[in-house]
Amino acid sequence: MDFAKCLIEWYLSNKRDLPWRRTRNPYKIWLSEIMLQQTRVAQGLPYYLKFLEAFPKVEDLANADEDEVLKLWQGLGYYSRARNLHATAKKVAFELNGNFPDTYKALLKLKGVGDYTASAIASISFGEAQPVVDGNVYRVLARFFGVDTPINSAEGVKYFKELAHKVKNVEQIAVYNQAIMEFGATQCKPQSPDCSVCPLQKECVALATNKVKELPVKLKKTKVTKRYFNYIVYIDKEGKTILTKRTAKGIWYNLYEFPLIETVKPVKSKNVLLEDEGLREMNIERLALYNTKEIVHKLSHQHLYTKFWVVHLQDVLPNGIPFEKVKEFAVPVLVANFIEDFGF
């Protein structure tokens, strides 16, 4: 069996009609690849279309304000992707005359562009014979060839990249790369793949050895940290509130949120919050917990246990934000959901 040829034939008959598959424009390919990292196609597609409408060319994205970029990105998560996206757009537009590098090695020098993204752009836009290796590709290769080396180990990363080079189709590299990714996404799925209709079934080692559920192998994740967030939602006499910008490196850098009090354990009484210096300085009329049950927001290595406390003030906030303006700010999805639910 010609592994690559079989995948290409399957792809040409089964591929989804997606906008980035109708172009070789490196800007559009780059945009789609960055957006679809850690994101399902169904979730990423509307964002891709929104970004292209707002920023048809890389120069448009480069000239945009970061807050505008983050606001459009809101809900996709992993916001460092958006900041890197913006930084790379500026480099391409202002330093490279609007032209993306046309080789794998040169693409790797762009911020936020790693092995996978550089391989995708180089192969799809410029025809360079670089195989892509993402989660879908790991799964297809691990199952078909029966490889149990952990995909997130140094040894695994090297081994699978070498294997990807061995089985690639050089003459049709752009189609082949899209084929193996699509195959992993829709046919050789993580859970319950329908092996009975798989074109690779006759030579699939995982199927023959009853290891489809066991492959690929992945080392256990880093221990998850629990954090306890208490958002203080101020409402003054004029119906205005406060949002602050996260300036510390870490989650949600440069996004806006309500004033935050982070504690080492859940806050069970508002008296604990009233000991905070910021709250003590306010002329409080009343303070009440909005959500009696903590909202658990799960990130890759940390879980945020969150409560929103609504604080009505007797005074007027000097730099208060009118309710109707709150939705204009780029905020984490956790805060965005509260804003929607609260009725700002």
TrEMBL record:
SMART domains in alphabetical order: ENDO3c
Enzyme Commission designation: 3.2.2.31
Cofactors that this protein relies on: [4Fe-4S] cluster
Every HhH-GPD domain range: 35-186
Catalytic reaction annotation: Hydrolyzes free adenine bases from 7,8-dihydro-8-oxoguanine:adenine mismatched double-stranded DNA, leaving an apurinic site
Keyword terms, alphabetized: 4Fe-4S, DNA damage, DNA repair, Glycosidase, Hydrolase, Iron, Iron-sulfur, Metal-binding
Cofactor binding: number and manner: Binds 1 [4Fe-4S] cluster.
Xref: SUPFAM superfamilies: DNA-glycosylase, Nudix
One family name in Pfam for this protein: NUDIX_4
Matches recorded under InterPro entries: A/G_AdeGlyc_MutY, DNA_glycosylase, HhH-GPD_domain, HhH_base_excis_C, HhH_motif, MIG/MutY, MutY_C, NUDIX_hydrolase-like_dom_sf
Class of enzymatic activity (EC top level): hydrolase
PANTHER family (UniProt xref): ADENINE DNA GLYCOSYLASE
Role description: Adenine glycosylase active on G-A mispairs. MutY also corrects error-prone DNA synthesis past GO lesions which are due to the oxidatively damaged form of guanine: 7,8-dihydro-8-oxoguanine (8-oxo-dGTP).
Assigned protein family: Belongs to the Nth/MutY family.
Name listed for the protein in its UniProt record: Adenine DNA glycosylase
